[in-house]
């Protein structure tokens, strides 16, 4: 009897916890026409079994750890495109004018990470190729996760756009 009540209490508590977890929607908007933006960089989301060199930056280590789930752990080419109206701003990493700034596209998985600026501040979003918000489908796609990482590595992610491609340890 006691065991049954305890199990029921635990189930009720777990139900409350899991229903209380809220995933954040994208804050940055989906930029129509991003496919025509110029490619400024190509990189990779590395496979889950990647062994990084010992001197790999913490930023790259975090990126590999965070996105090793992409394409079932196999990694994906990553294409960086910049809004043509912001190419000059991108070259100096800002400051940026308002509106969509950069997209990073996981070519295999079809994830489109968006960085947009508003009043000089970066905002983030995650979409699929159809423009549907997918930020709630994985914790590393949520705007809060993006903001936390970009804020942590401000020496690399200047004004919300990052400068160190994942390929650099292999060049």
TrEMBL record:
The keyword Signal applies. Keywords: Signal. Residues 1-24 form the signal peptide. It comes from the Bacteria. This is Cytochrome P460 domain-containing protein.
């Amino acid at each position: 009897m006691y065991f049954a009540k305890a199990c029921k209490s635990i189930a009720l508590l777990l139900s409350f916890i899991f229903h209380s977890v809220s995933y954040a929607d994208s804050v940055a908007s989906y930029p129509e026409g991003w496919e025509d933006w110029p490619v400024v960089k190509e990189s990779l989301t590395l496979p889950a079994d990647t062994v990084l060199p010992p001197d790999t930056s913490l930023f790259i280590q975090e990126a590999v750890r965070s996105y090793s789930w992409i394409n079932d752990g196999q990694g994906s080419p990553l294409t960086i495109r910049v809004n043509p109206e912001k190419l000059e701003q991108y070259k100096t990493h800002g400051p940026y004018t308002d509106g969509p700034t950069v997209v990073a596209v996981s070519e295999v998985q079809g994830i489109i990470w968006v960085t947009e600026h508003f009043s000089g501040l970066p905002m983030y979003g995650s979409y699929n190729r159809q423009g549907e918000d997918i930020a709630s489908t994985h914790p590393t796609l949520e705007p809060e996760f993006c903001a936390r990482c970009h804020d942590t590595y401000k020496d690399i992610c200047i004004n919300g756009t990052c400068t160190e491609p994942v390929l650099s340890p292999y060049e």
